Amino acid sequence: MYTLFKGLYSLITQREEYNILIIGIDNAGKTTLLEKIKSRYSPKGGLPPEKIVPTIGLNFANIFFKGYKLHFWDLGGQEEIRRLWTTYYKECHGVFFVIDSTDKSRLMEVQNSFESLILHHEADGVPVILIANKQDKGNSMKIVEIKEVFNKIAMVIDARESTVLDVSAITGHNIEEALNWILDRSPSNHFLYRLGLGVYHTGVELMGTEYCFGGHPYKFSGVFETVPRVGPPGVFFRESIFMGYIEKDDDDIVNVIRSIMIEYSGKSYNLLKRNCNHFSEDLVYRLTDNKTPRWINRLAYIGSWFPCLVPDMRSPVESEYAEDERAPLAIVSDSAAVRPLLPSNSTISSFTA
């Protein structure tokens, strides 16, 4: 038994490592992006932009970010080097595909390179974030323009596996967001993933408002309203999950909301037995008679059997807003959250934070 728990402890506490591939055609600013990442997160720092030269071959760097060790591979973008990209697909956990958002003349070339990445069998299932670089320039294309071009290609893969983000490798704008996005979709983006577990924050969206449950030391309700798909600090929206239709009139819906707000006081919050996911499941069931996916709250279930693995006595507010609680606000998927419950001809969606 000691060996079992020692093994579980090692599994839980070991530092996760990820390989992130940085590619894109030449002159997109890939190396400048890597050097900016190093300047922010590496004790050795990075090179200033004026000292950076075009990459011929490979640059690499290691950083520590939010408890993870990230290995970056920056590959050259010259046409003769692009054929080497594919040799790295199988070993990477995420891809930064960098484009020069000021160069419309090469947009078709960029589009073809991006499509070859997306359609390559070795890249199947690898999260890809399209970095629209040089957004600090006055002549850069708007994100909506870029999305119109690249979303048509990205439709061939799961929408959760690709996105477009406006970035500046010079100012560092949205670099942290890019890293968070990749980590949130990596194979081990949450606690105990090897055991099929995760720590998720969820909420339920209803008629344009999201209802969540959090703890506080007072007797009044712990249910609060918020803007849909905007999670608590430190969590990141992942997706909305359809939960069915509500066959109730407006008065019945209001009564359900009022009654559950009374029942779920802030003081009653418990990480293992009465958390935000229990609330989301309860509210969804009262409105639709549907159950939320079991994996959303699996960690709490396991913790109730092995409280030594998942502490039961964390403070309510700390538990609900912990940085590693990456989950949806509705009914969840990866990090999930249960989203708004809508009127009879509407739907329930969920997102992860």
UniProtKB/TrEMBL annotation:
GO cellular component, one term: Golgi apparatus
Gene3D superfamilies with a match to the protein in the record: P-loop containing nucleotide triphosphate hydrolases (3.40.50.300), PPPDE domains (3.90.1720.30)
Entry's Gene Ontology BP terms: Golgi to plasma membrane protein transport; intracellular protein transport; protein localization to Golgi apparatus; proteolysis
Matching Pfam families: Arf (PF00025), Peptidase_C97 (PF05903)
Any one GO molecular-function label of the UniProt entry: peptidase activity
InterPro entries from the UniProt entry: P-loop_NTPase, PPPDE_dom, PPPDE_sf, Small_GTP-bd, Small_GTPase_ARF, Small_GTPase_ARF/SAR
Superkingdom of origin organism: Eukaryota
Family: Belongs to the small GTPase superfamily. Arf family.
Protein name: Small GTPase superfamily, ARF/SAR type domain-containing protein
Organism the protein comes from: Rozella allomycis (strain CSF55)
